[in-house]
Structure formats: structure tokens, C-alpha cells
Amino acid sequence: MRGSSFGYLIKVGVRSVFKNRLMSFASIGVLTACMLLIGSAGMLSLNVNSIVGYVEDQNEVVVFADDNLDEDELQNLDLDLHSMDNIRDIQFISREQTLEEFNEKSEEGLGFEEGDNPFPNAFRLSVDDLSRLSETVTKLQGLEGVIEVNAPTDIASTIVSVKQAVYIGGSSIVLILAIVALIIIANTIKITVFNRRKEINIMKFVGATDTFIKLPFFVEGMVLGLLAASLAFFILWGGYEYLVTWMDGNQSALFMMFKDQIIPFESIALMMYGAFAAGGVLIGVGGSMIFVRKYLRV
């Protein structure tokens, strides 16, 4: 195909978007609505995961050491802790430091003297994977010099369950919406192509090749997909920023608690637009090509 013919077919494809305004508007509207639903579900899932991850990071495990351990033995215990997997952010808390903090927070007359220090040396640490907390606690209890391990196992179990539920629920919602979107969009494109079946048949009868006929529809589908993706992207961005601003203005206690964990739209804007654009073009072009092929068989 010559360059002039190729350029002509691209112009025809772009012109067809405006020539068939009613069906183009319907296709863009349906595709935009479906992308908004999928994008909103995705943003909700990302933010819930971010908040759950923050709560997960706040859970600490405290390992209490035997009072009879000397400095070398405490150092060996510290090395054992650093050599274990699923553990990070290890902090040594001396019994003197614990006593000082307790006395500062206690009411006058309720503190302990230096010689009556009842607190043991301890290590405060965080775990990487809360789903393995019970396994990690068992290993910690087996270390030489450890007398007790204080871990929020019940809270960890709840957080892990919530995280799994959010992942499964979010993925299921996005998948269901994507399937519904594909069905609706496929039918919309099918109607669009059906309304132009005579145009396709005439071109076929006068000797036009399949590629010559398909290219304008290919371009048209790509333009419709990109327009819908851009429209959905900016509507989602504006709606998301409005919602965050509204929640911030209401000074909601829950929002203020997790304000720093709310994902800024700018941080995922490029990824979101890329997904919208790829999905829009794939659906627009793919749908057009599938249904145009039916009317090429004359």
C-alpha cells in the first residue's frame, strides 16, 4: 500500500469518528463509564491495602532476655536475632532505659529505685510477613537467653484475614466489572459496525482489499479508545481529588488517622493512564476488527 493511500485511510478513519457522531458518542460513553467503574474499584483496593499495610507495620514483637545474661551473651542474642528471616528493625531496649521511661510516665511516688529495677533487657522488632508471625514467635522462643516473647498474634491474624479479603474482593470486583464492560462494549461496537454494513459491502464489491476496508475501522477504534481513556482518566482524577479534599475538610477522625496512607493520585497517574489507554485501544480496535470481519465475507 502506498504512503498516500495509507494517509488517506487514516484520515477516513479519524473522519468517521465525527461522521458517525451518535454511535461514536455511545461507544465513548459506554467505554468511559466502564473504565471509571474499574478504575474506582482499583483505587479503592489500592488505598485499603495501603491502610492495612500501615496497620501491619505498627505491630511489634518484644523479646525479653534473661536477667542473668552478661554483655557478651546479650550481643550473641542480638546476632541470633539479626540472622533470623522475617525480622527487621531490631532495637535493643536496656532495663535501665525501660525503668527511666516508666518513672517518667508514672505518677509521683509510684516509680522504682535504681536498685529495685524489675524490668528485663528486651529487643523490640518488627516482622516482614504477619502471616508467618506464629512461626517466627516459635523460633524466637527457642533462642538461648529468651525468657518470653510478647507478640500480637490475634491482631496479626485479623489483619492477615482483612488483607486477604481485600485482595480477593478487589480482584473479583475488577474482574467482574471488566467482563461486564467487555460484553457491553462488544455489543455497542457490534451495533456500530452493523449500521455501516452496506458501506463495507459496497467497498468489497468494487474491489477494495480487506486491509483497505479494515484500516479505517482500526484507526476509528483506536481513536475512540484513546478518547474514552482520556475522558475516564481525567474524570477519575478530578473525582478522586475532590473526595480527598472533602474528607480532609470534614476532619473525619478515621481519615485523619490514615491521612498519610492515602495514595496520591499523581503517584499512579502515569500507570493508570497507561492502563486506560491500553485497555481502550485494545477493546476499540479488537472489537471493530472482530465484527468488521463478519461483513467482509461476501
Automatic annotation (TrEMBL):
<keyword id="KW-0812">Transmembrane</keyword>
<keyword id="KW-1133">Transmembrane helix</keyword>
<dbReference type="InterPro" id="IPR003838">
    <property type="entry name" value="ABC3_permease_C"/>
</dbReference>
<feature type="transmembrane region" description="Helical">
    <location>
        <begin position="215"/>
        <end position="237"/>
    </location>
</feature>
<feature type="transmembrane region" description="Helical">
    <location>
        <begin position="21"/>
        <end position="44"/>
    </location>
</feature>
<comment type="similarity">
    <text>Belongs to the ABC-4 integral membrane protein family. FtsX subfamily.</text>
</comment>
<keyword id="KW-0472">Membrane</keyword>
<dbReference type="InterPro" id="IPR040690">
    <property type="entry name" value="FtsX_ECD"/>
</dbReference>
<dbReference type="GO" id="GO:0051301">
    <property type="term" value="P:cell division"/>
</dbReference>
<keyword id="KW-1003">Cell membrane</keyword>
<dbReference type="Pfam" id="PF02687">
    <property type="entry name" value="FtsX"/>
</dbReference>
<feature type="domain" description="FtsX extracellular">
    <location>
        <begin position="60"/>
        <end position="149"/>
    </location>
</feature>
<comment type="function">
    <text>Part of the ABC transporter FtsEX involved in asymmetric cellular division facilitating the initiation of sporulation.</text>
</comment>
<dbReference type="InterPro" id="IPR058204">
    <property type="entry name" value="FtsX_firmicutes-type"/>
</dbReference>
<protein>
    <recommendedName>
        <fullName>Cell division protein FtsX</fullName>
    </recommendedName>
</protein>
<dbReference type="InterPro" id="IPR004513">
    <property type="entry name" value="FtsX"/>
</dbReference>
<dbReference type="Pfam" id="PF18075">
    <property type="entry name" value="FtsX_ECD"/>
</dbReference>
<dbReference type="GO" id="GO:0005886">
    <property type="term" value="C:plasma membrane"/>
</dbReference>
<keyword id="KW-0132">Cell division</keyword>
<keyword id="KW-0131">Cell cycle</keyword>
<feature type="transmembrane region" description="Helical">
    <location>
        <begin position="268"/>
        <end position="292"/>
    </location>
</feature>
<feature type="domain" description="ABC3 transporter permease C-terminal">
    <location>
        <begin position="172"/>
        <end position="297"/>
    </location>
</feature>
<feature type="transmembrane region" description="Helical">
    <location>
        <begin position="173"/>
        <end position="194"/>
    </location>
</feature>
